[in-house]
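Instructor's aside before we start: the two examples that follow are unrelated to each other. I chose them only because their records fit on one page, so don't look for a connection. First example below.
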Amino acid sequence: MRFAPVVLFVITLVFFAVNSNAVYAHDKGAFGAGVVLGDPVGPTLKYWIDSNAAIDVGLGFDNDMIFYSDFLWHEWKLFPQPQKGKLAGYFGAGVRFQDKDEDDEFGFRAVAGASYWIASTPIELYLEIAPVFQVSPDTDVDLNAGIGLRYYFTGS
């Protein structure tokens, strides 16, 4: 039952995608909302600054609450393009805060991933990996990874 809200959210996004006009996800001003499964699990938002750069934020829930935000740079020629849809590789950097019972943790993330935009729909599917270099309260290295889906509402 832990994933029931996530499944309901994904079904809702797919319903909106099927019943709406396509938005190019990478247009300046495009705003997407979705969900990521992995470590962490939770909602995610992405805002496009221009056709290559975006900012994403996420909130994860496990035993502890996790907040992260990254600046992402997309490379459209990294992978061969599929016949339908669009495929981009991306990399970036950001921060992560983890609210722990004893000591809260703060660290920096390095992000790498791949995104696929489904043809004729405003949906992005993505896979990413993000080593986290924890600096407070102790130094340590952690790893975040996930697969996600975002639905895009607007674009300019």
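Example two begins here.
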Amino acid sequence: MNNFASANSIAEIAAMMGDAARANMLCELMGGRALTAGELAHCAGVTAQTASGHLAKLSDAGFVVPEKQGRHRYFRLASAEIASAIEALSALAAAGPRRHRPTGPRDEAMRRIRTCYDHMAGGLAVALTDRLVETGMLRLGDGAGMVTDEGQRFFCDFGIDTEGEAKGRRPLCRACLDWSERRYHIGGRLGADMLRRATELDWLKRRPDSRALALTRKGQAGFAEVFGVSRDLLELSPHAERR
């Protein structure tokens, strides 16, 4: 017995993501936050009734998970695997034919540093990954990642426990293809823990209305001193947190 998906199963999944309204909803949920049906309807440009139908299909297919809190019902991505699939498709779309679309400040911020479900993505995340590989903390290959013995000690000092694979079925470290850089950033539990730790240290700030993350002055110094990221890549934007 094998675990290979049939062509029909692949086609069904592709069709589920192939609708523009559903694709917009899934991309909006890539920020890692749970959103209401009304918020998702707004981002998809559809009516509440149409959004409800789309969300029912996505829920039945296992793409999103509904959560009820009081009188409100929220939706979030069902898993990191769904997020990885969306990121990979975004990379393919970015490599496709160029379309006329002026690049705005929001696009620049997203390309620099953003959330990819529950971990960091963008130019800074890719540079961080490169440094960890160059210094021998990580080994990446064929979409997988491995933390070295030296890396385990490094991450432990940084406040991240890399041991105990039994913490669920999610891999410790995986290589996630970055849609804007077309190179790898760190996903898996390690990627999620790195984002968590960076926000705990006040290196990065989440923005309520965007997947883009704000780099702080503490983060500028921290990423340079602890990870050795080039300061040229850590210039603060005009709207960055000045703490």
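Residues 91 and 179 are 4 Å apart (CA to CA).
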